[in-house]
């Protein structure tokens, strides 16, 4: 005790400790907030989506918020009032049955019938395919027949149950007093089921494919019945099958599904519905009550799915007429006048339902109720409504964009909390329902306008199409917002339901208190009290469909006896409406935002994509459109007429991708490519690109679009453009290698301007290694020698002219590559082809030399030289050659301006090119052999692999392989060491014929060489001068084929000494030296005479000297080339000396062999 009292003073420190503790808690709380914000920033940086929800296109997990009831109806409907229990149980069970039937029709039959015939190939169905497709549908039609029969039974049963309930006969069973009790939920469910039957009729009557294919199928069955053995079908099965087909046709395909339902017999032995006035009155009252509610909402901003219920109400009205044969004119007028609000109801897909047409076709004697003018006014109103809505679309977009954007901002914000929890929940409920209403309004507008255009066959303007597409984007934006805020909705929705249930319970508790306070108990009052107790029980639990149905049925009874005041009743009705909307919120949003109808209007997509490319604004909205297109997938999976539903998906996928490529991707690629080209080629004279005049279009926004999820792929627009540009630049660079730099600059510009990372082509910037192939040259040697020019020193052929910006070249490496590809055997074949070519050319050569004009001039010139060789100092006169060169032009010119001597020069050059090609073939062969043999260590000491294998005792196969290897190595070594002297072969084969006495006209060849070389020099100077001109046609800097040709022919004729005896090149040199000397003397004399320097004369002098130097240089080059070419043909020896040398060699070989022996 003492110790406890000692520590009592600690009580006085409580205040300070509390302050310290609170301070620490605040610090800790701040730390947690900072840490949470940091984590959120990291998450946002890693994930480009906004909010806590995952990407909608992936949707790996679905959060289902629809309340699910696990308790059966018998356990839910429990009060002390047994009779009331039975009535509520029966009615609720029938309503649940009708709901299940409606759900079955929506999920199983609608889309299977709607998509029948889709996926047909462009060329049409093959023979018999229509019957096969219809055959696949027969099981579905059987199920549909059973479904329709079940629906008939349920409708009949519900009418009989209601007739029994409102029975006015005393003899009937004792039930509760239902005076002024209106079971409106039952009639509402009945209207929904009748709406299903009307929808089935509308879909089937809208499907021409079904009727056409059904006729073909019936004909096929008849043909099978005529010869069942042929098709291996038992005859006894065909008759029942035909009866089944007839039954299905009459029941389903004649458009009488709904009509057969309302015309069935509703009276039975115990219950007489048609003669029950109470039921007839109750029927009419309930139709009026439902219609009053629908009329106030249809076409207004607070409409959800009321127009779809209106379809069923029309069906209910016709059912009322068919049973009771009474026409309520006031009610009829109310139904008829709905067309002024909405001209039609888009049911689904491409099916449009016109209420006035439906009533006209189902109600006899309509002319008594309506005059002709009123009937015609309907069509006028439809057209007027469509025109007005189309004109107001632009305004509607602005209004809806503003409203939806404001709503999205509120949804994305943290939802500022109200003063109390109740206010907060109310605000959230209102916000959620507001988003749902926006979605419903947009959906109704889009569906009605689009489908009414089709139904009335009115073309849509481009503006209208684009406006509707923007509305579709807004609709999907609402859906995406709801998805992004999934966590908020999931967190709030149960609290909202509880709050609404509490409000309803409070109202019911007041009513109960009011009933209990009245001590005058009666059966009717007890029924009302039991009904209120049942309503309370239903509200104590999740807001499932079953509980809400029981609640409404119970309140149908519980609202009588003035249990509720009028304002309380209105408040309760509003609360229940909100409860319905919130409980079915996810399903309602899904239905409102479903854009599967886009499948039937997909022709608008090219226009939409083209506009997106032309007007680059809000490019990310394309994601919304593709989400809308994705909605078409789920219904397509229900198809039954194809072997597999994925076939239709594949066709749809290809079609949409074709739209995307043709109208967005390809134009975008082409535009960016063109833009890059214009940027790079700005130095050229281009069209005016002033943005203030021609405008500017920044397509880079399209490249920033996130990858679009579509079916099993991601469409990455940036990657597709990069792929296109990389491929284009690569292909164009391979075609024109000289443009590699331009495409490199364009690649860099793409990176800088658009942020595109293109693949480097890694192509050579100059030439390709392989060059022309030997086989190709060999086959076209006549073309090759005329199109290419030979360079003796570099052993290279250069193309004369080309349509491209580059000239092809051929060198030893190219030839070696070709020989390596085709083998060394190609070399001999090439020589044979060249031999054939030379034969033809030498024939032309002989004809030219044999010509009388040429021959006579040559003989004359040779005679002059022999007679005057002493006076000319043994040198052929330059004047003589010049005279020949100019004089031959008198014989005639070709259209190209060439003389006969020009053509002869070209012939000699072609023969020389052929010899240059032979030389290159030999060099290429040696190059190839050297590359192949470089792995042999010592060519002088080659090991025999065959002997080694034999010594080691290896198998026969190894020895055979070693023998082949030895042969290959020896062949390579022989080719490398010796090589084949192809020049000698071609000299030996032609020289006997050339030196034959019968070809004496060829002996004058050496005499034509002076004028021929003069002609060549003039031609060469002309070609080189063209090198510096803009137009380079005919330009060349080398033509050593002429030297090769002259050297070869001189060797064949054995005229080297004869040509040398002319001393022609010395004569040319002396002539030009003499001209220069005279020119310089003339210049000095003129200067001395004038006493000053004449500038014009000086310029003329310098130009003339330059020209003389140029000619001297060209003649020197020709002399050197000719001297080099003569070495190949051993110009130091005459034919006689060569023969003598060969004889000496033969003698030496014989002596050596004798000594050896």
UniProtKB/TrEMBL annotation:
Could you tell me the superkingdom of the organism this chain comes from?
Eukaryota
Q: Which residues form the WASH complex subunit 7 central domain?
A: 597-940
Against InterPro entries, the record matches this protein to: WASH-4_N, WASH-7_C, WASH-7_central, WASH7
The protein's matches in Pfam families, at most eight in alphabetical order, are given as: WASH-4_N (PF14745), WASH-7_C (PF14746), WASH-7_mid (PF14744)
Where the record annotates domain WASH complex subunit 7 C-terminal, the positions are 959-1130
User: Where is the WASH complex subunit 4 N-terminal domain positioned along the sequence?
Assistant: 29-596
**Any single biological process term in GO:** endosome organization
Q: Name one GO cellular component term.
A: WASH complex
Name of the featured protein: WASH complex subunit 4
Organism of origin: Lottia gigantea (Giant owl limpet)
Organism lineage reads as:
Eukaryota, Metazoa, Spiralia, Lophotrochozoa, Mollusca
């Amino acid at each position: 005790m003492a110790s406890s009292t000692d520590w009592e003073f600690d009580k006085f420190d409580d205040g300070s400790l509390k302050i310290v503790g609170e301070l620490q808690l605040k610090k800790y709380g701040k730390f947690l907030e900072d840490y949470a914000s940091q984590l959120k920033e990291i998450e946002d940086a890693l994930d480009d989506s906004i909010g806590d929800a995952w990407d909608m296109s992936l949707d790996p997990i679905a959060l289902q918020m629809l309340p699910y009831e696990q308790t059966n109806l018998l356990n839910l409907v429990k009060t002390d009032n047994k009779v009331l229990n039975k009535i509520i149980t029966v009615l609720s069970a029938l309503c649940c049955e009708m709901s299940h039937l409606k759900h079955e029709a929506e999920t199983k039959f609608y889309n299977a019938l709607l998509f029948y015939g889709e996926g047909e190939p462009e060329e049409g169905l093959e023979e018999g395919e229509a019957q096969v497709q219809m055959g696949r549908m027969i099981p579905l039609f059987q199920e549909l027949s059973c479904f329709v029969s079940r629906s008939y039974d349920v409708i009949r049963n519900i009418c009989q149950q209601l007739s029994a309930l409102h029975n006015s006969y005393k003899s009937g069973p004792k039930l509760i007093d239902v005076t002024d009790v209106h079971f409106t939920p039952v009639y509402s469910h009945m209207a929904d089921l009748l709406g299903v039957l009307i929808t089935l009729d509308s879909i089937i009557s809208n499907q021409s494919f079904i009727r056409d294919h059904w006729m073909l199928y019936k004909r096929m069955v008849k043909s099978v019945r005529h010869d069942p053995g042929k098709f291996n079908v038992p005859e006894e099965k065909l008759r029942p099958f035909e009866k089944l087909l007839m039954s299905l046709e009459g029941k389903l395909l004649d458009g009488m599904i709904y009509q057969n339902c309302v015309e069935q017999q509703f009276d039975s032995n115990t219950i007489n519905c048609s003669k029950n006035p109470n039921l007839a009155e109750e029927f009419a009252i309930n139709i009026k009550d439902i219609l009053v509610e629908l009329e106030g909402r249809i076409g207004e901003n607070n409409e959800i799915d009321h127009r779809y219920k209106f379809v069923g109400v029309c069906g209910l009205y016709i059912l009322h007429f068919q049973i009771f044969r009474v026409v309520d004119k006031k009610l009829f007028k109310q139904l008829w006048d709905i067309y002024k609000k909405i001209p039609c109801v888009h049911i689904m897909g491409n099916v449009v339902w016109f209420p006035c047409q439906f009533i006209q076709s189902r109600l006899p004697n309509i002319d008594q109720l309506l005059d002709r003018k009123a009937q015609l006014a309907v069509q006028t109103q439809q057209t007027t409504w469509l025109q007005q809505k189309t004109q107001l679309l632009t305004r509607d977009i602005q209004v809806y964009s503003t409203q939806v954007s404001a709503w999205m901002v509120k949804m994305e914000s943290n939802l500022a909390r109200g003063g109390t929890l109740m206010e907060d929940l109310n605000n959230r409920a209102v916000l959620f329902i507001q988003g749902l209403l926006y979605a419903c309004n947009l959906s109704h507008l889009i569906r009605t306008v689009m489908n009414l255009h089709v139904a009335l066959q009115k073309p849509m303007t481009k503006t209208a199409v684009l406006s509707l597409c923007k509305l579709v984007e807004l609709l999907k934006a609402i859906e995406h917002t709801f998805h992004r805020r999934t966590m908020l909705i999931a967190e709030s929705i149960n609290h909202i339901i509880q709050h609404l249930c509490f409000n309803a319970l409070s109202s019911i508790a007041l009513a109960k208190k009011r009933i209990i306070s009245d001590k005058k108990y009666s059966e009717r009052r007890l029924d009302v009290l039991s009904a209120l107790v049942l309503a309370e029980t239903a509200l104590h639990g999740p807001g499932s469909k079953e509980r809400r149905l029981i609640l409404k049925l119970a309140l149908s009874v519980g609202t009588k006896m003035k249990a509720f005041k009028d304002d309380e009743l209105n408040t309760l009705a509003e609360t229940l409406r909100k409860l319905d909307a919130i409980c079915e919120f996810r399903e309602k949003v899904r239905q409102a935002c479903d854009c599967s109808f886009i499948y039937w209007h997909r022709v608008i997509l090219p226009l939409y994509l083209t506009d997106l490319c032309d007007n680059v604004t809000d490019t990310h909205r394309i994601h919304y459109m593709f989400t809308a297109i994705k909605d078409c997938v789920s219904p397509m999976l229900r198809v039954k007429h194809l072997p597999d539903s994925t076939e239709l998906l594949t066709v749809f996928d290809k079609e949409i991708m074709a739209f995307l490529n043709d109208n967005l991707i390809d134009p975008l690629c082409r535009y960016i490519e063109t833009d890059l080209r214009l940027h790079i080629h700005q130095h050229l004279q281009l069209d005016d690109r002033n943005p203030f005049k021609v405008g500017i279009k920044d397509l880079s926004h399209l490249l920033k679009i996130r990858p679009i999820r579509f079916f099993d792929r991601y469409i990455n627009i940036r990657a597709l453009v990069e792929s296109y540009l990389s491929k284009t630049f690569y292909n164009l660079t391979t075609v024109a290698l000289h443009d590699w730099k331009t495409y490199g600059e364009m690649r860099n510009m793409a990176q800088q301007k658009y942020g595109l990372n293109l693949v480097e082509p890694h192509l050579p910037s100059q030439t390709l290694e392989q060059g022309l192939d030997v086989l190709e040259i060999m086959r076209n040697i006549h073309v090759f020698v005329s199109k290419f020019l030979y360079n003796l020193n570099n052993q290279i052929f250069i193309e004369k002219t080309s349509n491209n910006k580059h000239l092809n070249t051929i060198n030893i490496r190219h030839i070696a590559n070709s020989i390596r590809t085709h083998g060394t055997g190609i070399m001999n074949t090439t020589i044979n082809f060249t031999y054939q070519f030379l034969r033809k050319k030498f024939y032309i050569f002989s004809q030219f030399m044999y010509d009388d004009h040429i021959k006579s001039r040559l003989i004359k010139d040779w005679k002059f030289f022999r007679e005057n060789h002493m006076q000319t100092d043994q040198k052929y006169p330059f004047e003589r050659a010049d005279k020949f060169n100019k004089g031959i032009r008198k014989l005639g010119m070709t259209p190209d301006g060439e003389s006969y001597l020009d053509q002869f020069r070209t012939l000699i050059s072609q023969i020389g090119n052929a010899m240059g090609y032979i030389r290159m073939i030999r060099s290429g062969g040696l190059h190839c052999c050297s590359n192949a043999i470089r792995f042999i260590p010592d060519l002088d000491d080659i090991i025999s692999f065959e002997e080694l294998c034999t010594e080691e005792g290896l198998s026969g196969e190894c020895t055979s392989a070693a023998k082949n290897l030895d042969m290959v190595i020896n062949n390579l070594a022989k080719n490398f060491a010796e090589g084949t002297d192809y020049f000698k072969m071609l000299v030996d084969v032609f020289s006997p014929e050339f030196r034959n006495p019968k070809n004496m006209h060829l002996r004058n060849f050496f005499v034509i060489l002076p004028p021929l070389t003069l002609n060549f020099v003039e031609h060469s100077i002309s070609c080189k001068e063209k090198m510096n001109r803009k137009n380079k046609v005919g330009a060349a800097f080398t033509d050593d084929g002429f030297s090769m040709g002259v050297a070869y022919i001189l060797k064949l004729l054995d005229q080297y000494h004869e040509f040398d005896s002319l001393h022609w090149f010395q004569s040319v040199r002396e002539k030009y030296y003499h001209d220069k000397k005279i020119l310089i003397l003339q210049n000095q004399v003129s200067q001395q005479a004038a006493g000053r320097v004449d500038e014009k004369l000086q310029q003329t002098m310098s130009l003339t000297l330059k020209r003389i130097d140029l000619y001297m240089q060209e003649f020197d080059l020709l002399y050197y080339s000719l001297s080099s070419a003569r070495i190949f043909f051993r110009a130091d020896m005459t034919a006689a000396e060569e023969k003598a040398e060969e004889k000496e060699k033969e003698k030496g070989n014989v002596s050596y062999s004798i000594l050896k022996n």
